[in-house]
Write a sequence for this structure.
């Protein structure tokens, strides 16, 4: 069993490592992982300009989601589950949190996700619909499917 709660500032370094370990599970090489490090690093400012939720069990961090809300639109900036705890419903729980948090924060139109191509099946399973793709800002040449959930 796991619980969801708000992230704490002293956990940001640990959450960065969780994201990197989770991303590495897809088998990206060192060069790509190096490109991702900047993008996946949580900073104190993230606590102020976004909502961050963690999944934990027995004081162990198992997953994290970060949501940015810009007026009526929300953007799921990150969703990562610890490698050893994937396929156990944590991603689904954090995705559910992001929808509820978007509503609570006043987003009324859509939730957008620029997904890792290897996570596309998960977002489809969550009911998101693909609408095009965008260039990755960190990995040259990588196209990321853009998913949309109508709020
Ligand atoms: C994508 C990710 C968040 C999914 O989290 P998870 O905890 O493993 O997912 P869940 O166990 O909650 O899965 C929910 C459902 O989605 C399905 N699913 C999970 N990952 C899937 C995938 N890659 N492709 C297709 N279906 C997937 C599960 O089978 C499950 O289906 P069910 O409802 O029929 O049982 C996780 O694999 C992850 O952290 N990946 C690495 C990092 C990453 O790329 N994150 C996304 C950045 S955009």
């Amino acid at each position: 069993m796991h619980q969801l709660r708000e992230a704490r500032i002293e956990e940001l370094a640990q959450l960065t490592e969780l994201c990197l370990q989770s991303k590495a599970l897809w088998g990206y090489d060192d060069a790509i992982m190096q490109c991702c490090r900047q993008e996946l690093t949580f900073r104190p400012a993230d606590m102020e300009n976004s909502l961050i939720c963690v999944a934990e069990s027995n004081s162990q961090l198992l997953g994290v989601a970060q949501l940015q809300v810009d007026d009526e639109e929300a953007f799921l900036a990150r969703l990562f589950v610890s490698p050893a705890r994937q396929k156990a419903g944590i991603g689904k729980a954090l995705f559910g949190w992001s929808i509820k948090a978007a509503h609570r924060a006043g987003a009324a139109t859509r939730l957008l996700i620029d997904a890792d191509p290897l996570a596309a099946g998960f977002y489809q399973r969550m009911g998101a619909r693909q609408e095009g793709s965008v260039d990755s800002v960190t990995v040259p040449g990588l196209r990321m499917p853009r998913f949309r959930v109508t709020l």
Observations:
- The longest strand covers residues 60-70.
- The chain has one domain: 3-112.
